[in-house]
Structure formats: structure tokens, C-alpha cells
Amino acid sequence: MMIYKTKNYTEMSRKAANLISAQVILKPDCVLGLATGSSPIGTYEQLIDGYQKGDLDFSKVTSVNLDEYLGLGPEHDQSYRYFMNTHLFDHINIDKSRTFVPDGLAQDVEGACKEYDALIEQVGGIDLQLLGLGRNGHIGFNEPAEDFARGTHCVDLTASTIDANKRFFASEADVPRQAVTMGIGTIMRAKKIVVVVSGADKAEALRGTICGPITPKLPASILQLHPDVTIVADEAALSQL
Ligand code: GLP
User: Fold this and answer.
1) For the chain, how many structural domains are there in total?
2) Per the domain annotation, does 240 fall within a domain?
3) Residue 212: pLDDT band with limits 50, 70, 90
4) With bands split at pLDDT 50, 70 and 90, how would you rate the model's confidence at 42?
5) Residue 241: inside a domain, yes or no?
6) What pLDDT is attached to residue 241?
């Protein structure tokens, strides 16, 4: 596990964007696993900047996103498809037909989860997976649990996650109670993983991620077993180490 300590969110975003840029430059037809949330927004801004300056070309890139709320369609402004379009895809030259986000409106959720895993395999697996970290140590929407989930699956969101994400909705009651997420197995199969973490409210979860016991009660702790993980975190997030 490689850990970069940065002064603040801006520096964290620049460093993470550099790692992703290197991936896109070295392998222009790579598969990027992408994340939502406030943590990667600055990283995406840097990538857009790199594209606008002519340094980055996303025309051959494929992307697969980690997760999506159940019940929200692509036009809903809190859906993760909408987030990805507005924060990244609409501003770079990626082919939108090669950007994938789990379908929040799938009728047959279980079937759609299987199809999503098959799709990831079909495109050749994930070269670089970008992750944020939940306050409770979740990655994607893999909440603390008794077991590590393998593939893409449907989850009930915990009270902590609903509380953390209510800031994006009109009220807590509007936050979806379920989501579809890549499993821990899917994430762990990515060739390279980059985790962006910012702020003191993540410090405890980050300490557990890096040096706590490996347990599904803190899902991100499994990353200790991955051969190529880079954590890019600011001083506040690393304050408990
Ligand atoms: C959300 C997302 C995660 C994200 C995490 C942290 O619920 N499902 O993919 O990494 O929580 O979010 P944020 O970066 O806004 O703190």
C-alpha cells in the first residue's frame, strides 16, 4: 500500500488526477472504474483541465462506475449517472456509449447485477479503480457487514450513510434506502486502486483501512490485501495515524 499525504483537498485532487492521467497516457484504451461523492470531484476537475489543455485524450477509454441508488433514473439530479455526466463525461471526449453505471431503474435487479459483472469482464476488467471512503469505512456502497460481498449486488444503506448523504437531497426522507454496488470481489480484481480521502470525519475510517484488522465490519480494510493500492489523503484524513 502506497500512501501520499497531501496538505489539503486541492493537492489531493491534483495527485490523484496525475495517477489517473498516467494510466490514460500509458494505456489510451484503458478501463477506468469511477466513483461519485464529494471526494473525487476535484480529481475530475483536474482531469477536465488536462483534457482542455490537450494533454489527455479519453476517446478510447471505457468507464464503469461503482454504484447507483435504486429508484433513481439517469435524469434525476442525485443519480450517480447524472453526477458522472455533469462532473466529468460532459466535459471530456469520452464516448458516452462506453461509460457504464449500474441501472438504478432495473426491474430485475439481480439479473442486472449479474449483467454488470459480465460487462466488466467483457471489457477486459478494470485497469484503475478510483475509490472514495465512507465515514463508516464503506467503499462503493459496500456497507459494514458480516461478510465481504463478491459481485455486484443490491444493498440496504445504513443509517450512517443515509445521514452522510442527506446533504444532497431536499430531506432525509428523499434519500433512497437501497443501492446497487460493485462487490468487494469486483473492486479487488481491479489491477490498480487509487483511494482519495479528505477531511477529519474520515480519519477514523482511514486509520482502520490502513492499519486495522481486515474485517467486513470496515469494508475498506480488505484493501490491505490488494497488491497495488495508492491512498491519496490529506493531513486531516491522516490525523489519526
Ligand atoms: C457515497 C458513495 C461512495 C463514496 C462515499 C463517500 O455514499 N457511494 O462511493 O465514496 O459515499 O462520499 P464522499 O466522498 O461524499 O464523502
Assistant:
1) 1
2) no
3) very high
4) very high
5) no
6) 92
